[in-house]
Each structure stands twice: as C-alpha cells, then as structure tokens.
Design a protein that fits this description.
- This protein has 170 residues and is an all-alpha fold.
- 81% of the residues lie in helices and 0% in strands.
- The structure holds MU-OXO-diiron (FEO).
Length: 170
C-alpha cells in the first residue's frame, strides 16, 4: 500500500510525464509544418514514449492500492525560433525531469518505501539515456550551425544519429 506522501509525489510525476508528451507532440507538429519530416517523426515517437512513461506510473500507483490522478494539462509552446532552440528546450526539459525523478527517489528513501524506490530505478536509467541523446543532438546542431545543407542531412538522418548515440551510450 502506498503512503499518501508517495502517492502524491507519483501523481505529480504522472503530470510531468503527461506534460512532456504534450510538449513533444507540439514540437513534432511544429517540425512537420516547417518541412522537417525526419525531426517530426523522431518527436512523435518521443511523445509516445513519454505517454508510456506516464502510463507505467498510472498502473503502478493503481496496482499498489493507490489512486492515479489523470491531470489537466497546460498548452505547450506553439513554435520555435530554430531546431537548435527546439532541442535546447528539450534538453532543459529533460534535465528538469531528471531532477524531479531524483527528488522522488529521495522521498522514497526518507519514507523507507523500497518497493517504489526499486520501481523508480527504470526512470533513473531512462533519464541518463534521454539527457545523453539530447546532448548528442545539440552537439550535432552546433557543428552544423546555419548551414542549410547540414540541416537538411540532419533532418534526413536524425534516426540513424540516435541509433549510433544509443549504442555508444550503452
Ligand atoms: Fe519521461 Fe523524457 O522523461
């Protein structure tokens, strides 16, 4: 059974993951309208992953005898100045999420909820990966700068950039 404090903290995380999914969905939609089809597909997938992160938490809270709260969400940003601006926003967002996961882990230790602590280790590992991917993308974009040909190739090859980064990070 979850104690109230842990349930509240997990419900807060459900909201953060749901907001992440919305933010990346809005990013995907913006990229699509800017003719950045590869980036859009990457972000649509990323949005789906965040929904899965949320769903895992919803089901965990309910399975442990708590009640998951499905939250109201705020309107994400509609547009971005550039791809660099978009991915910097994404990286900053993931750094914020990592901080929130760390706080959650801390609460579990203070409250001696080792089951939830164990459950959260998946999120700790996931955050390391997500931050590393976002940093890899930012490195590529800073190499490309304003070069239109480079940006074209970045958009075309974003999936393979990420597959390479993923295997390097494992
Ligand atoms: Fe589920 Fe990207 O944090």
């Amino acid at each position: 059974m979850l104690i109230g404090k842990i349930q509240d903290a997990l419900n807060e995380q459900i909201k953060i993951e749901a907001e992440s999914s919305q933010i990346y969905l809005a990013m995907a939609s913006w990229a699509e309208t800017e003719g950045l089809g590869g980036t859009a597909q990457f972000l649509y997938k990323h949005s789906d992953e965040e929904r899965m992160h949320m769903l895992k938490l919803v089901q965990y809270v309910n399975e442990r005898g708590g009640k998951a709260l499905i939250p109201q969400l705020s309107q994400p940003a509609i547009g971005y100045k550039s791809l660099t601006n978009l991915f910097q926003t994404l990286l900053n967002h993931e750094i914020m999420v990592s901080g929130e996961i760390n706080n959650l882990v801390d609460i579990c230790l203070t409250e001696k909820d080792y089951t939830t602590h164990n459950f959260l280790q998946w999120y700790v590992a996931e955050q390391i990966e997500e931050e590393a991917l976002a940093r890899t993308i930012m490195d590529k974009l800073s190499m490309i700068g304003e070069d239109k040909g480079g940006l074209y190739l970045f958009d075309r090859d974003i999936d393979s950039i990420l597959i390479t980064a993923n295997s390097e990070n494992q």
